[in-house]
Amino acid sequence: MKSSSYLFLNGIRLHYLNWNLKKGGSPVVLIHGLAYTACTWDFVAPLLSDLGWMPLAPDQRGHGLSDEADGDYSFDVVVRDLAAFLEMTNLEKPLLVGHSWGGMVVLDYAGRVSTGPRSPAGIVLVDGGIGQLSDIPGATWERVREFLAPSNTSGMTLETLHRRLLKPNPTWTLTDEVLPSILANYHIDENESATPRLNYDRHIQILQNIWGFNSYLHYPKIRCPVLMIPTCPTEPLDGFARLRFEYRQRGVEQAQAIIHNLKVHWMMDTIHDVPFQRPHELASLIDQFGKSIVG
Is 184 helix (H, G, I), strand (E, B) or coil? Predict the structure, then answer.
C-alpha cells in the first residue's frame, strides 16, 4: 500500500511516497523526470514491492507536493536534496533509479558519492543520463528550447486537458487508468481549471540545466554497476525522433567504452514515458538487475 510522508531538508518541505516500508526489504529510490512527480512510479513501485523491494519516490523540489522553492534548480541543488533524503531516511546502499531528468540526477549523485553507506549499490538510468542533448548534430540551446519547452496549459479546463492527454499516439496512448498519475503534475482548482505545479520559468531553468549536462564527464566517476534502459519509438523514425535515437546510440557507445560494470537493455517501440507504458517490463528489469548486485 502506498503512503505519503514529508521531510524538511535543505530549506524546503519535501514530499515522498513509500511502498512496503513496514515490511522492509532492500531500498530502491525512484527519481522522476522534469515536470513529472513521484506518481510516475505508481505502476512500477507496487510491482517492486511485491518482489521484495522497499520503494520510495520523492517529489523533487518544485514538483508534486514538494515546496516550490525560489532560486536555483541546478544539479548541485537537486543532488544535494537527494543526498539529504537518503540521509534522513537512513537508507544504506540503495538502488537508485532515475527516469529522464531523474536519470541525470542519479548519475550525478553516483559520481559524487561513490563510497560509504549512502553510495548506491547500483543505478538504473531509464531514458535519461544516456548521451547528452549537445551531442545532437546542429543542436543549440535555442533550438532545444523551442522544441522541448512546455506548451501553455495554465487555465485549461480539466475536460480539455483530459482530451489533450488522451489524444491517440501511434506508439501508445495514455489510458484512463494512468490519467490520475499524470494529473498529479497539475493543480486543479474548484472551477476545474488546471495549472502545472511546476511553473514555466522553473521548467525552462531546469531544461537549460539539462542542456548543459555533460553525461560523458560523469561516466568515468561511476564505481557502481549501471543498467541503462534507452528507448526507441516505433519506426519509421524521422526528424527529431531519429536524432534523439542516434544520440542515445552514441551515448550508449560512450558508456560502454568507459563504465566498467554496465548492462544495456534497449526498449524498442516504446515512448519516453516508460514507467507508464511498460511498468511490468521495467519492474522486472530493475528487479533482475538489483538482485544481481545486492543478492
Answer: coil
CB 290 within 8 A of CB 26: yes
Counted residue by residue, the chain has a size of 295
- If you search the block for the grid coordinates 510516475, which residue do you land on? 40
CA 31/CA 105 separation, integer angstroms = 8
Q: Are 211 and 247 in contact (CB under 8 A)?
A: no
C-alpha cell belonging to residue 270: 516504446
Give the type of residue at 179: L
3-state secondary structure 211-279: HCCCHHHHHHHCCCCEEEECEECCCCCCHHHHHHHHHHHHHHHHHHHHCCCEEECCEECCCCCHHHHCH
- Mean pLDDT across 105-133: 96
In CATH, 2-138+214-294 is 3.40.50.1820: yes
Instruction: Give the number of other CB atoms < 10 A from CB of residue 128.
Output: 27
Distance CA 254, CA 274 (A): 23
For 154-175, how does the pLDDT look when each residue is reduced to its tens digit (9 = 90+)? 778 888 888 888 887 777 778 8
- Please state the separation of Cα 143 from the chain's center in Å: 23
Helix (H) or strand (E) holding 46: helix 45-50
- Within 8 A by CB and 6+ apart from 206, the residues are 34, 73, 101, 198
Strands 26-31 and 95-99 turn out to be parallel
Does residue 47 contact residue 283 with C-beta atoms inside 8 Å?
yes
CB 276 within 8 A of CB 155: no
